[in-house]
Every structure is written in C-alpha cells, then in structure tokens.
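hey so i finaly got around to running the thing on Initiator tRNA phosphoribosyl transferase family protein from Linum tenue. pasting the sequence first so u can double check i didnt mess up the copy paste, my clipboard has been acting weird all day
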Amino acid sequence: MDTDGRALSIYRAARTIKRKDNSLYNALRSIYEDSIFVGEISQLWPELPLLANLRCGLWYSRGFAATCYFKSTDGHTNNCSFSTARLNLHVAALAGQKGGCMIVDSTRKGKRFPDSMSKTIPIWTCVLNRAIRNYVCRVQREAEEKGETADVECTASLDWDCSLHLPLWVPGTEKAAIEERIDEWVEQLEASGADIASLASCLKKPLRPLWVSQKTVIWLNEVPDHDSWDFTAVMLVSASAQNGVFQQHRTTSEFSWNYIPGAGDDEESWARGLSPGLFWNHAYDIIGSGPEMCNQKVAEIVEKDRVYRAQRGQDAPQICLKNPKASGDTDRCSSCTSIDSPGGDSMAVFRIGFTNVAVGSIQHAASVPDVDCILNCDEAHVHGRVANTEDYLHLPMVSSKWDRFSLSSNLPAAVNFAKAHLNKGRSLLVCCQNGEDISVCVCLAIVTSLFDEEGYFDDGRLFAQKGITKWEMRRRLVFLCKFAVTARPSRGNLKQVYGFLSQGRAASSDFD
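ok and heres what it spat out for the 3d tokens, dont ask me to read them lol
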C-alpha cells in the first residue's frame, strides 16, 4: 500500500524503489567514495596534472588543474567521429609541459569506462599525433629544399608513434573501421586552422592513452616514473566501480546506503542546486548528515550560497525543484544551476587574442579590469550596471534547447553594439551565465563578422567580401577556442550563428 492507502502497482513499486536507491545521499556518498580512489591514483603520479572531463568528472575531486570536454557521443559504436568544435588543444599542451596528464570521468552504464575514454580520447590522441608528424615532416622537407636547418623543436619524425591505441575490449572490426577514417580526420584538423606548430614545439613525445579503473592492478613498489615512458601519457581514470549486486548495498558504522556507479552524471536530475565546488566545500558535513537529513542539509547549504551571492550582486537564481510526483519534462528553472570550476568559483574570463574582445561568466563581469563595455547575454543583470546604457547592453538569451531562435534574433543588435565600440578602440566583454556556450557563440558571430583571419579588426570588410562557409565557421571557432579553453558551444546555438552569418541561407552544417 502507498501513503494514500492505494494498492501499489508493480510499476509504481519499482519507481519507488528506484527513487530510494537513487537518492541524493546515495549519489553524494558514491561520489565521495569514488573520489578516494581518484585521490589514490593521483598520488601515484603527483607531478601529472589532474583534469576533469566535463561535466560528470568535475564531481570526483576537490581540486583539478583544468577541465576538458570529450563527449561520449563522439565514441559511440559504429558512429565515431572527431570534432573540430572540441579540440581540447590545451590538454595536449598541458600534457606536453608536464610530461603527461590524468583525465577523470565515470559512467553509469555498467561498463568500466565511458565511450569518451574507450574511443573518443584515443581517436583524439592518434589524430593529433599524425597531424604533428605531418607538420614536422613538412617543415623539415621545406627546410631541406632551401638548404636550411628546420627550426622545429620537436623529435617527431618517421619513428613518431602514430598508431591508434584502443583498449582491448574494442572489437577488431570496429578498430579497423576507425583506422580507415583517421587520415580523413587529420585533414579536417589541418584544415581547421588549429595551431599545430605550438603543439609540435611542446610535445617531445607522442600522446598515448592509458586506462585506469578500480579493477586495475598496480603494484605500489613498482610504480613506473612517467619520465621513463617513451610517450606522453594521457591517463584515463574511470572513477566508478562497475555495477554489481555484491557491491551494490554498502553499510558503514553509521549508515546503510546504495552505491550508484557514475553518480555524478546528469546532475540536474538529482543535485538539487548543489554544484561540485559547493559540495566539496561542505563534503564532510553533507556525508555526516546521513540519508535522513541529507536533503535538508543540502537545501540549507544551497540557500546560504544563493544569499551570499545575492548580497554581493552575483548571479543567484532561485533553485526550483521538480515535484517527485510530477510527470512530464522538467521546468526550465529546474536546470538553472551553474557549472562551477574546481575551486568553487565560476569559470574565468578569457581575452581573445588581439581582438579587444573577452568572453566569460556573468559572475566576473562587474570586476573584470580593463573592460570598457559589456554585452550581457544572460537573463540576469550585471550588478552595478544600468540597463542598456552606452557602455552596457543587456540581451537576454537562452539555449536552443528552450528557444530555437533566441540567439539569431538577438545577434544583429549584439554585433552592431560590438561594432560601434570596437570602431572606437574600446574593449568589450561578452558574458553569459557560465561563459561557455551562449557568450562563446555571440563572440564567434562578432569575431567572424568584424575581424580578419589573423584576428585584427577590419570593420567587416573581409566578411563582406568572402561571406561565410562551413569550414570558415569551423576555423573561426577553433581560433576562439584557442583562447577560451573552457568553451562548450552547443550544436543548436552554433547553427543559429551560422544561419545569422549566412544571411538566411540554410544552416545545414553539423557542428558536432
């Protein structure tokens, strides 16, 4: 019987059990336990920087050196791809500087590793390795033709490892199918305008993925030094244990709880406004509160943080939670939570080369130095700014998930505002809620419309002459992401930008 005295159907009973198993406390406790494993692995190679693969990976450690964005959809079986919209070149550069890196992620599907680690990142390392070898060989060949010495600080040559390294559980047929497309993806990377020369100068050894999970056996007295390897290690750490009945129900001296593999995934459905940074600031209090008081404790922490932000004029949306008994899709306000950086603050502001344009989150907009004017694309106002004055324009925009024409209808005003101020030599900040999607897309429209291929302001002359093509759009996006390393523009928003730039022509390009 349920609380209303009605007989429970099998479906309702199953939903009730699932809801209890996937409770907030179970999710956070699972994350906390998995983070212990991540910490142990990071201590084996403390010199290697720890990176979180957004967004799930961000939950599994108190502090990350940086973040990255490799999508599992790019590694789905028989549908693998290489995305020039998500090059993550800063990861390769950081690995080259430090001699390697660790990337943390997890999965809920009962597998040891998510597809992002099984295939997406291995494909990425192989494509970058081949592009670097092609670049070095081309520079050496051109130097030999001129009778000069090649000015390339890289050992990449014919013995540079360009093999595709996949884990053993990937079938041979699928590996063969992927290898057939590698050269095609290398050509796409080279055509995108990515700065291969910089990668070639900082990578002394080819990139190679290594896989580490909770089932990996590592002899602590025989841990190899990463400098002894003949490759630059990209260690892929899957935080979660595989789902199994024997380990599903766990009991401590205080509480009984159910383990959830990949608990950090899909945070909008369970986190109740809690962000990774906020969780780690109060981890001991939350875990110590137990299953019965966890929801109340999290609600108090989230509300205190909201009030704290509001008192300082920062973006502080009211968190709206979906009624557990309600059916249908969640309301838009139920997912109005921000992705926090490892330190708990929102992502920083990035200046785009010599363009006099910067992009970032609204939380930093009021305090960014050397900014003359602000273009605010978030639904909230920037604290201390009067709406739509000469140096401040507020154009509320939402993701294409909620409005398919939100960006395209506001881009004309955004570009005109930018043009008026850039013509006067003034600096511009484009901001949105997290500085990763909408503001990046608006900045992309501005840079493409008003700047030449080298990133210098030309008042739109080059754009008027050449217009826009699919590949030119990708090249500009690569240029932008070179500086805004946390950029994660969505496909729907990119299509709106392309539709605006192509003056109404069909925006049929796929930006995956």
